[in-house]
Amino acid sequence: GHYVIKLRNLTIITKHLNKGDITITESILNYTRIKNTGNEGFIAVVDNNIGEVIKVLQNTNKDDDANSLLYILNSADIELNDKKQYLSGAVNHIDDFSGITDPALYDIAIEAKIVLPIWQNVLFYYDNCSDEIPEIFYDYINYYAEELTRDTSTSFLKDRRDLYADIFGYNELSVENYEKLLPLFNGVFPEVELLADLDYTRLSVLIRQGRVIFDQESLAEINKTGALADYILSHPTDFMQHLDWKYNFVASNVQTILSSAKFTSYDKCKIIGIIPVTIIQDSKDIANIAINILCNQNKINVLDETLVCVVKTSTDINKKIEFTTNIVRNGNRN
Length: 334
Prior knowledge:
Elements: H1 7-17, H2 31-35, H3 40-48, H4 50-56, H5 66-74, H6 80-87, H7 106-111, H8 119-128, H9 135-143, H10 145-150, H11 161-168, H12 175-181, H13 200-208, H14 216-222, H15 228-234, H16 236-241, H17 251-259, H18 265-272, H19 277-281, H20 284-295, H21 304-313, H22 317-330
């Protein structure tokens, strides 16, 4: 006869068929516990009404086994939202996508996070999702970053520059996960034109981990960001060899560069020579750093205009006197 789907009835029958197992309560009843009764008649009734059953199951322990997860995901009789709600938060996983009957369901499997968190699965989904990578892809990686860091089977990632670019070329991963997962990918970041839109924290991680090479194409993008000082300090030797390239200097990055231990006083004198005069004019701090550097050097190869500007702007009286005296004594300046 017709069977009214009520949680209370389902629980009483499941408990009875499990020899009165008192651990089975309304709140933890789920599809797996129903299946485990082994009673074909009861299971058939549940399966024939699965769309209704899923609506009433509370499934608070979220401990269905993988077979149940797959059955519910694949069922054509369960509404999409009911599937999502029921599957989300599951403690167990399906091993991969092979048991999923319809590729349209891959999204739900990833959104509900029921797929085993290994890179093989991340890559499979990446290769099979829409061209526009969905938010749920990044949510999945953020959620399982810890597990993905521990996945040891990752040798195939080194050939996947597309995946590398799509994961690390956007501000989608949390900064912590960005930093944690980057070492799993090898080599220089493949899409230079994405660098300018990365926020500073993630871009500086890329630079620190040596993923951005020193060339004019990369520099052009870095010039649009707040990470120029990080970039220069990661490549001090290259920078000194290419002082004639175009750098987008501003007060903050100039101060960082001139204060850095990565350059000798001699190098810093050369750097002072390429800093726009207006930056020195507008900053007493920079003028004071500059005059200290200049006082330490005998041979100074800096334009008079810059030197005059440093002396005028600096507030360090003693250094100004010392510097001016040096110049007069060395007789190399008018």
